[in-house]
Specification:
The protein is α+β, with helices and mostly antiparallel strands. The protein contains four helices and 13 strands. β4 and β5 (71-83) form a beta hairpin. The chain starts with 5 loop residues before the first strand and ends with a helix. The model has no long low-confidence stretch (mean pLDDT 89).
């Protein structure tokens, strides 16, 4: 069975747009590996195999084993460029080497649970996902694949904010590390403490009853 967290690659020496075009035509994706105080290395990966890796959500927030010409490297997928009109066509990828002693910044998906059981939903409300991912910082050993958001107790016209998320040990939200110049009064939220999910009254299209009545009267007169 294929290991979805192990990516096989080849080192490449050809640089430039022409070389990258030739790689793509041959079914490969140009990529680069950098970080950990080492020189960047240009590589290529098999496009079809890479697409299978990308189909796994956890691949985007997981420590990967990048095998370059037989040598293993611990990395994370840092950036991905897709074709503007075809999401299944990868143009370029960036991998960041993992340094066990240094914190890393990653974008992690949010998993919302208990939506149907939410107090606000049972009261007729509708759930709005205001964020689907968050940026975190942590040591490689503490990297989560996702952050769970339980909305079971969320009532109508209420929201869960970043500061209310339950984070795994060693994980910090980047947004909440920002500071503001203005002083916050008691009970006020920082503008960086954004809402993640809310439950609100469903929007219903308003019907102009007077207009309908006039139309009915006109039809009667005819």
């Amino acid at each position: 069975m294929e290991n979805l967290f192990e990516v096989h690659a080849e080192a490449r020496t050809d640089q430039g747009k022409g070389a990258s075009r030739r790689l793509r035509h041959s079914g490969k994706v140009p990529a680069v590996v950098y970080g950990a105080d080492k020189e960047p290395v240009s590589i290529s990966v098999n496009h079809n195999q890479f697409i299978r890796h990308l189909a796994e959500e956890a691949f985007y927030a997981h420590i990967l084993t990048l095998v370059i010409d037989g040598k293993k490297n611990q990395v994370v997928l840092k950036d991905l460029q897709r074709h503007p009109s075809n999401d299944n066509k990868i143009i370029h990828a960036d991998f960041l080497r993992v340094d066990a002693k240094h914190a890393m910044t990653m974008t992690i998906p949010l998993h919302f649970i208990n939506e149907e059981k939410a107090v606000g939903v049972k009261a007729g409300g509708m759930v709005s996902h205001l964020m689907t991912e968050v940026e975190i910082t942590c040591l490689p050993k503490d990297l989560p694949e996702f952050i769970e958001v339980d909305i079971a107790k969320l009532e109508k016209d209420e929201a869960i904010h970043l500061s209310e998320l339950k984070l795994p040990k060693g994980v910090t939200l980047v947004a909440l590390t920002h500071t503001q110049d203005e002083h916050l009064e008691e009970g006020e939220r920082s503008s960086y403490d954004q809402a993640v999910v809310s439950i609100h009254e469903p929007r219903v299209a308003k019907v102009d009853l007077e207009e309908d009545t006039e139309e009915d009267e006109d039809a009667t007169e005819e």
